[in-house]
Amino acid sequence: MQMIPLFVAIPLGAAFFIPMVARKRPRVADTLANLTTLALLLMAISVIGKNGVYWMGGWGPLKHIPLGIDLVLDGVSVFMLITITLISFLVTIYSIQYMDKFTAKARFYALFLLMVAGMNGVALTGDLFNLYVFLEIASIASYALVAFGCEHEELEASFKYLVLGSVGSTLILFGVAMTYAVTGSLNMAQVSAMIGGDLKPIHLFIVALFISGFGLKAALVPFHAWLPDAHPSAPAPISAMLSGVLIKTIGVYAMARVMFNVVGMTPLISYVLMVLGTISMIVGVLLAMGQDDIKRFLAYSSISQVGYVVLAMGIGTRFAIAAGLFHLINHAVFKSLLFLNSGAIEYATGTRDLNKMGGLREKMPVTGTTSFIGSMAIAGIPPFSGFWSKLFIILAAIQAQRYGFATWAAAVSVLTLAAFMRLQRRAFFGEPREASQTAKEVPGTMQASMIGLAVLCIVMGFLWLPQARDTFLMPAARVLQEGLNYASNILGM
Amino acid sequence: MLYALCFLLFMVGLYGVLVKRNLIKIIISLIIMESAVNVFIVMIGYRKNGIAPILNKTMEHQEFIRRTVDPLPQALVLTAIVIGLGVTAMTIAIAMRLYERYGTYDIQEIKRLKG
Question: Complex ipTM above 0.90?
């Protein structure tokens, strides 16, 4: 599998190349960035259903003991690669015209691709320290992107994000160092073979460090304070990437990988994850209810939806994990769509305040319709994708006899519906207010990207059909659920 | 004992990040936290009376393995320091821009975002 390192190398190379050749020519930067993300998407589609291990520099394992760093392509990695590259491709299309109002477009693409490189690396790596390095690459790029406008709010949000993000990274690094101190290895497979699901107090301390570190990155509820500031302040395409993909890759995915495949799931960890997920779900949606800023509203709703995914991971049956991953990719699609819609509204009206909008449906038909589809999908109305994934999470909770958690999940889904009906009514229906009088529909590429995502919102529901499920979702769920078999798969023991 | 001190240093940094109001003091606290982790990583590889992990031709392999310090944490700590440097530079750049905009380093006065 010589192709695996290219997932990191191509965006990393393009991130250096674009500002060099295209600093003064924004159209060249657009073309190069879109070609890069398109190439990544095609590569990710071409590896569906494949497995492989790539040993950096050819340093393969010797008698089942790993010597070098490995990149691992398995069901979950493929799943995450598809999510990352799909959203980043649609977001770069949107950026072509949206980012025209900013200067330094080449630098924007450079940071953007750096973030994509970091996330692809996190999805692929099989080494704990390497995970930390890629995670930091993605995080540093995202700190800079949040501050991209360099105005009061952006800088303030970025500083808050940076401080809490660095605390999270430091906790993760501490966890990685403790793991090395205890087991003498950093390779995930070898560590997993050594710990083998037998957790002593020192291992539980490592688990606590990882849960709080990754929890900070995923903005689970006691650790969520930075997200409602950071995500709205960034430019709309970046908000879409941060909420849609970044918190899931470096937060939820990394946590799930470490918990399931490296330390091994125990009833205690699984209970902690379920409780964290449920609290995030409830608090996120309640805080979202009172927001007047459209992007802030969406940011709180992200906290709530990520709670669903973590709850499903905590339940830990194969059905639950598959449902959780299904919700993860669905949420990536509709939350990016909604953030791009909010960007379109800001582009057309110059405000994000729901009190100043109204009646935008007639002025901006494409934005209005796609946003309606996105809202219905996130609120869980059939036939849209969000309905199926939420239904399966609730069914999985019932099947695992977690009735309390299932009830909460159902209740939060109703609250989400109420919250998004309020958004739709105030922004798109009713009488136009001052800001929406002069609103016009946004330019072509922005529309194209939103329409693409809206179509995906409908089509993604079919991912649960047996054919698609068995090639895409189930292999991913199987890798996580089989947990410690990971070691023998990688090292060939 | 040393490990406990290292953990204490980490906690000092965490306390500073959570309690201090001045941007610069928060940044210093972050650096203290990072250093605590870096010191911890270096200590993992330490061995009493250890030798540098370079193998000469004259030395027995068994003797070398018994006495040398673990080189891997040293490689890790270099990487961690470089990453820490990048993050610190980024933090300071944003803090400077914040000072230009708000004219203060006090986070209690930098609060346009709420809710």
Answer: yes
